[in-house]
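Researcher: Before we compare anything, I want clean individual predictions. No alignment, no superposition, just each chain on its own. First chain goes here; please echo the sequence and then give the structure tokens.
Model: Echoing the first chain and its structure:
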Amino acid sequence: MRALRTLLIVVVVLGGLFVLADRLALHFAEGEVADRLKTSENLSATPDVTIAGFPFLTQVATGTLDDVTIGIDDYEADTGAAAGDGAPSSIRIENLEARMKGVEFSGDFSSATAADATGTARISYAELLKTAKAEPTQVAPGATAQVIGLSDGGGGKIKVALKATVLGVRVPGPLYVMSTVAVEDDTVKVHADALPKFGSIELGERTIRSITDFQQRIDDLPGGIRLDKVEAAKNGVEITVKGSDVKLAG
């Protein structure tokens, strides 16, 4: 009985030491991946990195992590805009969270690549508004219009607010247009479902759509992930991302 009790105590102690070593190794690895990602993506703040699964050390032995989640509060994504063309050179992506599966890594975590990744993020309406025409634009002789605001229109639509003037007189109140938002070839596109009326003035569709419709390309997301879907929501455009062979470091 005494020998059995001693054996049980040894097993418990060793088990506790293993768990402690496993958690310490996990904490170190999460920190290393976060630091590498901050450097490789030139981030202003260290991202959150969570490695799932227990025990961690058995994953280390195989050289592959089953499940890694990356969280970046703010990310400045390249828009591909040429200098001087009036378009913003970058756009701020908020609350980017990506879940990586099958992450193969080197022993010192200098390189890490995920087989697959999916995630979510948001572009605020204020940020997306920067891609619309900021100056009043002539849409007919004596009539101008410009986009002055974006908001949630419900049902996955964006409500676009326009300010219009006719013969130098401002049309009372904003004109509102319900628009569809979609993604195509890494580009977020906003397209008016129906065009606004400017009293009795006849407007060509192409002319007015040069104001109501706009788009923004988003390049260079972390690790090579790409836009998949977009949908208008309360606080901005919610986006989903996906990718394969996504580099976390190296």
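Researcher: Okay. Second chain, same rules.
Model: Second chain and its structure:
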Amino acid sequence: MRAAVVRDFNQDLSLETVDDPSCPDNGVVLKVDACGVCRSDYHGWTGGHPKVGDGSIMGHEYCGTVVEAGSRAKYRVGDRLIAPFILGCGDCPACATGASNTCEASIVPGFGTPGAYAEYVAVPFDHNLVHLPESLSPALAAGLGCRVTTAWHALTDRAGVQAGEWVAVHGTGGIGLSALLLAKMLGARVVVVDIVDEKLTHALSLGADAAVNAATTNAAEAIRDITGGGAQVSIEALGIAQTTNASVECLATLGRHVHVGMPSGDGMMTINMRAIYAKQLAFYGTRGMPSWKYPKLLDMIERGDVDLAPMLDRTIGLSQASAELRAMSGPTPPGTAVITDFTA
């Protein structure tokens, strides 16, 4: 099969012909219909993730059609499926309590096992997968990827966002835009933060109540002014110290910070603990979403409760993935890139 392979960090992915994946007994092989290009992939491409190295095939935001099923697989050939990026084992205490996104035995394609920057991907633990609604295109489904599901879990499970609350969103990439659209659906008021005016204008066009350019103003102070004392919830969607501290400092007393952005490297950063202490803030980490929450989210999208079409900006060929990753070194345009042509 054709795949885009990491050979050197910060260099173009190598387009190679590699062996087709073997089918796991407890899973399936998917013909990849679409795969999103995610900032988490960027961290791996730059050498910032310990499980990405020479020979890795990245890609964890995918959907596809079953072409082979293992003897213990739940799904069958021909099924169209969407995958959570965290594949819980199904047997451990975390999975038994419904928190499969915290499973210590989980598998994440693209990070330690071959991912979906390829024509085919093997998916073990296929009980995590979910049927893809006919009305949802593969490109949009892959565009939901980890960004929409992670944002939904962050807003509903971790932060418990309520109608009328102010939600600050730091970073208007895929997760940030997802958080904006979903928070508005929940009835919240949203202020977005970025350093690119084009992305802030785009977010305002999608319903953001206010926008702050952190390159020209103190974001935390501006948010406290806009909200009349601070946001009740703040979503950090980039994973760096500057936005993390702005997220903490923009909150009202008893506010909730939810850390979504994946920190790169060793993950160490200096945080304003005085703000957390003095305002008695809650500081949540979050990663992914349990697979059992997928059907409800997909049903809401299918019913039109939330329009996530603005998430998808462009479809690309596999050979263009390198350019998308390279662009993440600086300001990027609004919207998400999704690989839909694995021959180009």
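Researcher: What stands out in the second chain?
Model: Residues 2-145+289-341 form a domain with the Quinone Oxidoreductase; Chain A, domain 1 fold (CATH 3.90.180.10). Additionally, The chain is about 25% helix and 25% strand.
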